[in-house]
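S.,

Sequence below, as promised.
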Amino acid sequence: MEYLVTVVEEGSFTRAAEALHVTQSALSHQIKALEREVGGPLLERLPRSVRPTAMGRAFLPDAELAVRSWRQARRAARAAAGAEGGELEIATVHGVAVGVLTGAVARMRRLHPRVALRLREYTTEDEVHEHVARGVADLAVGYRNDAWTGPCWEIGEERIVLAVPPDDPLCDRAGGGPVGLAELADRGWVRCGMEPRIEGRPFVDLVCGRAGFVPRTALRVEHATTAARMAAAGAGVCLVAEHLAPALVPARQLVAVGPPWRRPLIAFSRAEPTGAAEAFLRVLREEHP
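The prediction came back faster than expected:
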């Protein structure tokens, strides 16, 4: 079942064999044995990919649950030996992975080189919370969610700034006083699919509405890093996390917003962390005092 789930996750026998550290022939042999066991084909072999058949789609949910339970049990057992071995799976969204976790992950590797790390990046915060709740990851780093009932630890805050096109008059304000939202009523916005929802509304719609206008969307993209790059190139204005901004937008195109926008960054998990998870949480707190 682990072989089947990995083939579906990777979309390829070649990549799955590499991930599992087995030969393709051994992988194919095990999949065929499983298909004989259940009485029919579970995978459809396409010229450049693999996808589950109708039987495979029916089989996968319980197979994934069994494999997740096994992986979680294995990680828990190894974690009991402490932080000097075992595995740690971390869940987050792309912007946090790039802007917040790079230093912590590098330091974790230096301090605990025998811990095998896997960083799972998701498109939305909802996906992060869902996958941690399902046991796919041991620990997550993201934003506060009042619906989360498990343990969580504040590790810092994310400050939000405004990225503007290179010819925008607001460039003259970079490094100076903050821009009031009402000054942005005539701007086109670059909107991101990962934009947080506050009080049931996308954040930009909410804050602009409170300032008395409806934001005009000039461009929609999926990732925060793409949105910042597009704004820097001149596609419109956009919100960008301050920890991401220096690598994506020239300093003269970054403007503070008033009143300041901040979001707490937290780590959270289903249970109190032990072993490698506890060690990584400690590294996070040291990286972001």
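The chain has eleven helices and 15 strands.

Coffee later?
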